[in-house]
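#struct-pred

JT: dropping the chains for the assembly here, can someone run the whole complex?
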Amino acid sequence: MPVNNSNSLLKGLAARDPRAIGKAISIVENNGQGVTEILAGLDRKCIEEVLVLGITGPPGAGKSTLTSSMISQLRSDGKRVGIIAIDPSSPISGGAILGDRVRMMEHALDTDVVVRSMATRGRLGGLCASAGATVRIMAASGCEVIIIETVGVGQSEMDIVRLADITLMVLAPGFGDDIQAMKAGLLEVADFLVVNKSDLGGAEALVMDMKQIFATKEKESDIARVLQSIASENTGIKELLDAVQRFTTYLTINNLKKQRRKKAMEGETLDWVFEMLRPTLTRKLVEQTGQEQIDPRVRAKELIQQMLPINYHR
Amino acid sequence: MSIPYRVLIGKPGLDGHDRGAKFIARALRDEGFEVIYTGIRRTAAEIAATAIQEDVDVVGLSSLSGAHLRLFPEVIKELKDRGGADIPVLGGGVIPDEDKEQLLAAGLRAIFTPGTPAATIIQSFSDACKQQ
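RK: done, full complex below.
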């Protein structure tokens, strides 16, 4: 009985029942029965009000540790927190080891810290769609701040962090080569740059470099955008969250949060469209025979024309 | 595309020897499982709460310190207290034969000891997940 089931799950979400939250997220992630009813039935006001933070950076920069100490600070401020921790799936077996929780176990028994580990499962669009829906499920279960944590070393992760209202990029001294690799992308979309492990040598130089890159951004909002932390000692976390709070206010009063959300929702809707079409398209493609000689672009256009009554000119 | 099974590998108690747990985690990953690893020195309650949050199909426990008779059934109890009585629990480690029966009677789905082939362990995880 999918309807009854989704109804009781929705009730469970509103009552903040951990089992219901976990089940609802699985249904969304697996495109299971009742997914439409669940997502349509979520409390829209909670979703509108939640603050979504994206945390990204190279492996080993301290993202999970920073996330954990941010959770501690948010909890002492009385906030209920949700965390979506994303790790890559193996391209060979499809399996994954999701280990971000190891650094967050101190919060394991806190029922106001909702953690969900998520594997990329090989398809970026699908992951963005699942993660976006998970944000809304967590929001509907009363989470006021949601953190999406993901390794940030490429285009794919950049798309995931765009689900967030505010993006934090975490770096640590000694990651020179990674910074080179990311210069063209993530630094541009990041709202904050956190130099973690700032007790290590080279931190000051890194901060100076980054301040230069973020100078324009700092000027436009008059909020410090390059911050330092030692996440393992909870140092710099309060200052970081204060800056995030000021920036949230800046985004809200300038109507920028709404604009960012609108864009994110549109992107996610497109992701869902492709996800929903994928099975049908894959089937049609497999059923086709003798078309190997046709150029894939021409084939794609024919496929679309078969499915949709549109005039596709190009 | 089939949906990957989600399992949790946990180490309850004060035992810090996690080579076995990590070996199993990697072997399961290589067979297409999504494995949530909790790290060492967790309480039964922490493992159960994590399993519920992550909505895993199966919980796998590893213990090499001899405290399995106390800790494994405690995880089952904590799961039950949190509405997760339906989540199967598998255990492995340095476990004498005479304890094995006791653990199975306490509700453990299967017990693996040194020398159990990895393929057997993976098959047990697979079977337990399938029943979920």
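JT: nice. The interface with chain A takes residues 3-4, 6, 25-26, 28-39, 42, 45-46, 49-50, 52-55, 82-84 of chain B (CB under 8 Å). The CA atoms of residues 12 and 46 of chain B lie 9 Å apart.
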